[in-house]
Amino acid sequence: AATHKIAVLPGDGIGPEITAVALKALTAAGKAEGEEFVYTEAPIGGAAIDATGDPYPKSTEEVCKAADAVLLASIGGYKWDSLPNAQRPEKGLLRLRASLNAFANLRPAVVLPQLADASTLKREVVEGVDILIVRELVGGIYFGEPRGFKEENGERVGYNTMVYRESEVERIARVAFEAAMKRGKRLCSVEKSNVLEVSQLWKDVVIRVSKDYPEVELSHMYIDNAAMQLIRNPKFFDVVVTGNIFGDILSDEASMLTGSLGMLPSASISEPGKPGIYEPVHGSAPDIAGQDKANPLAMVLSAAMMCRYGLNLPKVADRLESAVTAALDSGFRTGDIMQPGCKQVGCQEMGEVVLSKL
Amino acid sequence: AATHKIAVLPGDGIGPEITAVALKALTAAGKAEGEEFVYTEAPIGGAAIDATGDPYPKSTEEVCKAADAVLLASIGGYKWDSLPNAQRPEKGLLRLRASLNAFANLRPAVVLPQLADASTLKREVVEGVDILIVRELVGGIYFGEPRGFKEENGERVGYNTMVYRESEVERIARVAFEAAMKRGKRLCSVEKSNVLEVSQLWKDVVIRVSKDYPEVELSHMYIDNAAMQLIRNPKFFDVVVTGNIFGDILSDEASMLTGSLGMLPSASISEPGKPGIYEPVHGSAPDIAGQDKANPLAMVLSAAMMCRYGLNLPKVADRLESAVTAALDSGFRTGDIMQPGCKQVGCQEMGEVVLSKL
Ligand SMILES: CC(C)[C@H](C(=O)O)[C@@H](O)C(=O)O
Ligand SMILES: CC(C)[C@H](C(=O)O)[C@@H](O)C(=O)O
C-alpha cells in the first residue's frame, strides 16, 4: 500500500464533470485495496489559455513531471477555434505528450456485449471485437522537421515531414510485441511502404524486432487496406502497431466499431519510471458541457488503465472495470449509449451507480 | 459520331479477364449510339516488368499520351512483391498518373439498392449512401521532395514530405466544387489543419475558392473525424475533397460501405484536352486470376465513367450503367456479391448478361 501522486488535468468542456466522477470512483476503489491517491489539479488546453495565455503552462508541466501518472479529461472548444495554431488547445496536448515523451499510445477498441447493438455495423461483424491499437505518439509527421510555409514561384507552399528513425520504430514495436504476447499473439503493422520511404524503414525495423518474438504472428498491411479491413472483418485484428497519423485515423475509425466513443479509454506511456497520460478517446463535447449529460465511463476506465499500466495496481483497475460492467449490466445508460429498456441517467447519477457497485 | 482512341492497359491478375468483358460491352454500347472505339493495348505493372523490365515503359507512356482516354484494369501480384520499390508494379501506376498529370481522382461510393445487404454496416445506415470522393492524385506526400533515407547519429532515418502549393489545391478544389454543383451542393474538405501546416494551407485555399461557389455548403473535417463519421453517419457526405494519402485511406474505407468493391469504378482526370485514366477501385486479385471468377462490373462501370467524364459520351455511359443495373435486377451475381436467391455466374457469363441487356 502506498500513496500515488496523480496530476489531474480536467481540461475543457465536459472534462471537469467526468473528472469529478472518475476521481470519486478511483478514491473509493483505492481505499478498498488500501491505496491512497493524492490529486494535484492543473489547467491545460482552453482552460489554461484563459487562465495564463498558454495551453500548456510551465506550472502544469511541472505538476505532470512530478506526478506518478497524469489523468487527463479532454481539451478544446468552439471558443478557441479561431486562435492561431500555436496558441490553440490542441497544441497544449501535443506539448504535454512531447514533454513527457509519452511515445506509446494504447487505444483499445473493445465491443462490450451489452453495447453490441449500438454499433452501426452488424452485430455479427462486431460482436467479440477486441483490438488494441498501439500508436506512436511523439514522432512522425506530427513533430517532423522541417515544417511550415514558404513562398515559391510566387505562391504559398505548406509542408510537413513524415520521419521515423530506427530507434523510434524499435521502441514502439517492442511495446506492441509485448502487448501481443499478453493477448492473442497476433500483431499487424500498418504503413504505406509501397509508396513511402519512411514506411519502408518502419517495416524493416518491425521485421527485425519480430525476431525477438517468434511466438507472435506478424502481418503487414497498407493503411488504405487496413481502413477497409477494419470494417470488412474487424475480428482479424488483435494488436495493431502504426505511426502517429495513421494511428490517429485508425483508432478513431476503430472506436466507431464499438458504437460507444463514451466508453473508450486510452493510455500514453513513456519510458519506465516516467509518468504516462491516461485519457478518454472522446473529445470535450462543448455542446453538452455543464449539462450533466456526459458519459463518465470512458474517464473511469481511463483511471483503471492508469492503475493497470502506470501504477501497477491491477486490483484497483479490476475493481473499477467490474463496477463499470456492473453498472451497464444493471441497465443504466447515459444518453449517448441509451437503448430501449434501459434506464437513462446523467453524468452524476452514473457516477453514483458506479460508486455503489464498487 | 466519331472514332475514339482508347489506350487499354489490362495489367495483372484478373485485369485481362475483366478488360475483355468491358471492351465487348463498350464496343456494343458505342455501336448503338454510332460511336466507334479503337483500342491500343499496352503493358503496365507486373506484365510490363516481365516484358520489358520497367513497370511503365516508354512505349506504354506514348500510347497513353496519344489516346483520348486510358482504360486501366489492375496491377500487381505476389510475384513482384519482393522487388525493390522503384521497380515494383505500383511505381508504374504512380508514374502513369504523374505522366498524364491526372490530378483529380474521382471515386464514387454508391450503395446500390440491390446490394445494400452486402455491406457489413446496417442496411438503414448505408441505404441511399451516394458519396463522391475527390482525391488529389499527383501531389502531396506521394510525390513530395525531399524523400528517402539518411544516416543520423549512427542510425537509419526514413523521411517523406507532405507538401501542397496553392495552385495544386485550387485546381482540385475547383473540380470538387464543380462536382458538388452537379450533385447535392455539399462539399466536405478533409485535412488535419489542427496539426499540419500543409493542411492549414489546404483549408485556406479551399475557403478562398468557395467564394466562387456560394451555392455550395462547405464544411471542414479533420481526417480522424472523417474516418469516424464515414461509419457513424455516411449519409452526411455528398462530395468530399482531400489530399492524396487521406484520399487513399478514405476512399478505400468508403468503398467498404457499399460491401461490393467489385462494383466501384474511378476516374482520374487531367487538364481539359488531356487523357484521363479510368479504372476499377479493386485490385488485381491474384488469388482468383485466370479462374473466370472475377467480377467485371467495376470495369464496365469504369468504361462508363470514361465515356461520361473523358469522352463526353453520356448516352453511351447511360447504356452501360443501365445494362449493369439490369443484370443485377435479373438476379445475376458473381461470387463476391452473391446473395441467397440469386444466380451465381462467372466473369464471362456476367459479361454476356450485360451484353444481352445493352
Ligand atoms: C486533438 C488532436 C491534436 C489529437 C491528435 O491528432 O493526436 C486527437 O485527434 C487525438 O487523437 O488525441
Ligand atoms: C497501389 C497504390 C500505389 C495505390 C495508391 O496508393 O494510390 C492504390 O492504393 C490506389 O488507391 O490506387
Automatic annotation (TrEMBL), chains A, B:
Pfam families: Iso_dh. The keyword Amino-acid biosynthesis applies. GO terms for biological process: L-leucine biosynthetic process. It is found in: Cytoplasm. Pathway: Amino-acid biosynthesis; L-leucine biosynthesis; L-leucine from 3-methyl-2-oxobutanoate: step 3/4. Its main location: cytoplasm. SMART domains: Iso_dh. GO terms for molecular function: 3-isopropylmalate dehydrogenase activity; magnesium ion binding; NAD binding. InterPro entries: IsoCit/isopropylmalate_DH_CS (IPR019818), IsoPropMal-DH-like_dom (IPR024084), Isopropylmalate_DH (IPR004429). GO terms for cellular component: cytosol. Belongs to the isocitrate and isopropylmalate dehydrogenases family. LeuB type 1 subfamily. Keywords: Amino-acid biosynthesis, Branched-chain amino acid biosynthesis, Cytoplasm, Leucine biosynthesis, Magnesium, Metal-binding, NAD, Oxidoreductase. Coiled coil: none annotated. Binds 1 Mg(2+) or Mn(2+) ion per subunit. Residues 5-354 form the Isopropylmalate dehydrogenase-like domain. This is 3-isopropylmalate dehydrogenase. It catalyses: (2R,3S)-3-isopropylmalate + NAD(+) = 4-methyl-2-oxopentanoate + CO2 + NADH. Catalyzes the oxidation of 3-carboxy-2-hydroxy-4-methylpentanoate (3-isopropylmalate) to 3-carboxy-4-methyl-2-oxopentanoate. The product decarboxylates to 4-methyl-2 oxopentanoate.
